[in-house]
Amino acid sequence: MEEKAINRPSTQPYMTVEEIYNEYCGRRSGLIRALTQDVDILYELCDPQRPGDKKLCLFGYPDCSWNVRPPFGKVPPKIPEPLIGINVIRNEKDRKDWITMVALHSDSWLMAVTFYYAIWSPLDKDQRALLVSLIHSDTNVYEAVIAWNEPAKDNTTEASGSKSRSTVKKLYYGRKITSIDIFLSDK
């Protein structure tokens, strides 16, 4: 019996584990920056009273940038879409709760996009396990946002186990790899 060919979109290139992971890291870094360093800009962009704005989404991009815009107009979209309408519910929640909710949904979207690419790429069982391991070795968006929002303690040192905000920034912004072998040898 013949195996059926996978109906794969012609526009979707095959990607290696390294390429998928690097794209994940870039998108994750952009989202973390939006929800930490650039949170005031994000909050202002998501004002539900802004004229002409529809329901908006927070997008993270592979180049570590982010953007707030309406969802894709094309149906079906090229990649899974993030939470739609983050601006609509902004004033219904406390600012910190709203940021936390957006962070949780951003993590969900990151996983959807990452595994969307993984499904269309010829990854075997071991490669998929490696991808999951790489992703789980990083802090997710939610954890980074929570760490960013923790009050900084005076006179803390790395030896005492506490981390300053600058240390948290270094740990939680995406890291791209040039070779999975190099990455695994650092572990």
TrEMBL record:
Q: One of this protein's GO BP terms? A: regulation of DNA-templated transcription
Q: What is its main location?
A: nucleus
* Cell compartments where the protein resides: Nucleus
Does the keyword section mention Transcription regulation?
yes
Which domain of life, per UniProt?
A: Eukaryota
Q: Which residues form the Alfin N-terminal domain?
A: 16-146
| Record has Thylakoid as a keyword | no
Per UniProt, subunit arrangement is: Interacts with H3K4me3 and to a lesser extent with H3K4me2.
Report the sequence similarity comment from the record: Belongs to the Alfin family.
Q: What is this protein called?
A: PHD finger protein ALFIN-LIKE
